[in-house]
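Workshop exercise sheet. Pairs work together: one partner reads the sequence aloud, the other fills in the structure field after running the prediction. Swap roles for the next sheet.
Pair: D.N. / O.F.
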Amino acid sequence: MPLRPAMAKWFELLVARDELAGALQCLADTGAVELQAHSDISATALLPALRSAVDEYKRSRRSHAEYWPPASPSPAERQCEAQDIAAAALQRLRSWARAADPLIDRLQGLTHERSELQLLERLLSRSDAALPDLRLFAQAGPLLASRAYVLASEPRALGVPPAVLAQSIPGDDDSFVLAVGPAQQIAAFDDTLLTRKARRFVLPSALPGARDQARAYARARIARIAEQSRALESSLEELHRAHELPAALADLAFIEWLAQSVPQLALTEHFAWITGWTSDLAGGRLQAALDQRQLHYLLRFPDAPPQMVRPVVLRNPRWAQPFELFSRLLGMPGASEADPSRLLAFMAPLMFGFMFADVGQGAVLIVAGAVLHRRFPATRLLIPGGIAAILFGLLFGSVFASDSVLPALWLRPIERPLILLEVSLGFGACVILLGLALDALQHAWSGRAAEWWATRAGLMLCYAGMIAAPLDRRSLWAMPAGLLWYLIGATMLAAPQRLGQLGAAAAEAIETLLQLAINTISFVRIGAFALAHAGLGAAVAVLAASAAAAAGTRPAAWLVLALGNALIVAIEGLVVGIQTTRLVLFEFFIRFLRGSGRPFRPLPMPAVAAGPHPSSRSPS
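Structure field:
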């Protein structure tokens, strides 16, 4: 089982300048490249020119994105320089904007008019309200002014000016206010209602006075607006096709990605020099991807520059990759550190399943992990945890908190609690011994095997004697032997100050052994939480039986069982997950993992910006 992480390999790629954009997108598509600039050749003109194009693209996006079609890359490869791609795409975007702006202005005006007519239609639907003659109300002037407002709250204490006549029309969700009065006082009333977050809307001057006729007018006008809006949107779609806007937007999104994600590149008059790290240790994936694009290139994998910090690449199979989360909580394992992900793929589910042993609840966790893992990747850990919970549920005979459905293949936790605690303690001792063994392996990888054998091997022997003493008292001799081993080795390594080192080594040995003892005892919590889980299950079963006896029906018991199991899965599942994480981080990782490595950060793929299609705004 390979435990040592791999180190990324340095690569250098020479391409023609007109193929730079295609080469960068090709490298991003592989997901196996992290760019890092390293050259004496300076490119001072490329990125500033691209950023200027990106700024113009962002300004246009703020004002026009609502009316853009989805971006769609052109089938043709980007076989020209990045500046030329940006310039051509911006030219198409500008020409589209000049032709589309009048249509957009008209479409926005129709949208606003439609929203005001919809408010008018809602006002007219208040059948219990006595409305004034709306034709005369809408045509008030020149000395008088009229207003119509809609508020999200009830119109209380509006502060109506003395010469203003106001009518409040309350409703369930919102309220309307109609006001008429001198123009100057109406303007002051506008300011008052503005503080109440009221919205003013204009009644059409051609509105009929009768309610039914006004409603028919509003509906007819809304239908006409919908027809005109569809015609305008069809014209916009024709402009999209005429100016090849989807391809232009895709090119500009690519240029934006290029300016934000790609470091400064080395350029000459005809060539571009791309450097960085790759997780493709054999080099075959990069070559195959570049060949598939039919690019002209020179690719080599020399030794990395000495001043560069080489990133770490974790090489785990798919079933172990979710468990990389644990080690990343402390940092990336270094070049001479062990990657414990494959070990945790067995160890963490065992701890979780032991504390959360139930066949039915484990199945619920598996379903939850299968449903949620695409949106929340960390929930993939629920699947192996649920499988382990099912296995231990079979051993303990628990199904949805009931112990009357299945026989216990091993034991009932409540009946034999001491065995649970003893097994937890033994499991913890094995985990800590594994951590000490990984520490020895890391010393060997870093060329310090002699140091480990001279010192830490003695402490490991001492700890082995400590945990074996309850089984065989003769193993107690290993404790003084291991302690003496450590003291002699530490003293011999400190040649100039051996006497002073002896006292420091003794204090360090005592501290380390105490930590090991405390770490071991901490694993008793696995058995304790298994007992707590069994106790909660028994309590739910008793409550369900009591509910059935009180109600005289089985559905009452089923309801209590469903609620009790939901509570156990939600609360204790979270607590058991936290305890598993704590044991892994603070009892296991502390023995060997330092997290000194730099993670490999692949070049992200260019995101294609897509605006909502105009048809999604068509009035109904």
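Discussion prompt: The mean pLDDT is 88. What would you look at next?
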